[in-house]
Specification:
Number of domains: 1
Shape: globular
CATH topology: Growth Hormone, Chain: A
Oligomer: single chain
Radius of gyration: 20 Å
Number of helices: 17
């Protein structure tokens, strides 16, 4: 991807857009006290965000097939900036937090799948995995930035300050994106005669297996993202750190996990270009499931072990995301890619919306009432079930076509 200023600019804009995604997760231990929430109620706000994001992805992806990915990308970016500022100004209770965090998610979907569609138009298959990998990596950079900003701002001025600091990202992102796409054509792919959505996607077995794999992947990943900062804060609290200091340290450590996701995304897409999608998908999903099954039981143990396993968890849980996205662009023809991404988003982020509230419910059931749970293992096991199912879906894929693609010279 050397020298591609277009990809760099799009990724920079995506980093800015996602700088609000982890703000709530970073502040969660503080908000549970400030807003008087149980773990189930706290999880429901994350669920509202993921449900809103799922609806947003479906709507914007389907719209992009009809009016073009570039136009939808820019429109969603503007709406994202406005909703982020609204959340920063007015989210001050459980009800306003739930409504405004969900509203923010409803505006964000057009900044993700549309970028994948633009990349699919721009890059040949033998380079596409690396390009999509950098896009996913830029999202991880935004999540890490969100946690770093939130951790610093929480310690300095409280949760409201952290909301404002994070909201600056989408505002900057709109400006970067406008410059990045000002010379990019808005392409609309006409559907082929005699081919419908059902034939192109629903009856396409490789595509549906990839979509199901993404669904289980999202259950594990989004549940992990929603609750890991709170888990790490609990680990610091158990070790003797004060409550605010524990939250601040957890934000920094959780940010490092997203940096590991950044490294995974930027490398695993390229690795799948060389080794094949199936092998990389299965290996990462199996390793991530193992981390889910073990991570929650580490509370009370050495903090160094929590950090090491968490870093591996962050790497493996996200590493298959660019591979799943790239494989889907190869399995579905361009006129129906937006629709396929819409279905994938609905199922994946729908599952991801349920995971945080299920996680929170299991926390409530396995702990005595209080702001800092001490038993986390069973909640993380619920996420591990998704990782195992994702590994099963990857194992059932047909042998890769990537071997043939590697033999072709790149036209770019």
């Amino acid at each position: 991807m050397k020298g591609d200023s277009w990809l760099f600019a799009v990724c920079a804009a995506r980093t800015c857009m996602t700088s609000v995604f982890m703000t709530y997760a970073a502040a969660l231990p503080v908000l549970r006290t400030e807003w008087g929430m149980s773990a189930t109620a706290a999880g429901s706000i994350s669920t509202g965000f993921q449900a809103g994001y799922a609806v947003s992805l479906v709507a914007f992806s389907s719209l992009a097939d009809r009016v073009g990915a570039r136009r939808v990308f820019l429109g969603s970016a503007w709406l994202s900036a406005v909703s982020a500022l609204a959340f920063a100004f007015w989210a001050r209770s459980y009800t306003t937090g739930l409504l405004l965090y969900t509203l923010m998610a409803l505006t964000q979907g057009g900044t993700y799948t549309t970028a994948i569609m633009l990349i699919a138009d721009r890059y040949p298959p033998e380079r596409r995995g690396a390009a999509v990998g950098w896009l996913i990596a830029s999202s991880s950079a935004g999540y890490a930035l969100s946690l770093l900003l939130s951790g610093w701002a929480l310690a300095w001025g409280g949760y409201a300050t952290s909301f404002f600091a994070s909201a600056c990202g989408p505002v900057v992102g709109v400006v970067v994106l406008w410059f990045a796409l000002r010379r990019t054509s808005n392409v609309v792919h006409p559907p082929r005669a005699g081919v419908r959505f059902g034939t192109a996607v629903v009856k396409n077995r490789p595509a549906m297996r990839l979509i199901l794999g993404y669904t289980f992947h999202s259950w594990e990943l989004l549940g992990m993202w929603a609750w890991t900062p709170a888990f790490v804060a609990a680990a610091f609290a158990v070790s003797g750190a004060g409550s605010i200091r524990a939250v601040e340290l957890a934000s920094y450590v959780s940010a490092s996990f997203h940096v590991m996701g950044l490294i995974a995304s930027s490398s695993m897409g390229r690795l799948s270009d060389n080794l094949g999608r199936r092998l990389v998908l299965f290996s990462l999903a199996a390793a991530s499931a193992a981390c889910s099954l073990a991570f929650g039981w580490l509370i009370g143990g050495p903090l160094a072990l929590v950090v090491i396993v968490g870093a591996l968890y962050g790497f493996t849980a996200l590493g298959d995301s660019p591979v799943l996205s790239t494989a889907l662009t190869e399995a579905v023809s361009a006129p129906y890619l937006g629709a396929a991404l819409a279905l994938r988003s609905f199922l994946g982020f729908g599952a991801g919306a349920v995971a945080p509230i299920v996680f929170g419910r299991v926390l409530d059931l396995t702990n005595v009432p209080g702001p800092t749970p001490t038993i986390w293992g069973w909640a993380f096991v619920t996420l591990g079930a998704g990782g195992l199912a994702a590994a099963y879906c990857a194992w059932g894929l047909a042998p890769d076509r990537v071997r043939a693609l590697r033999a072709k010279p790149s036209p770019m």
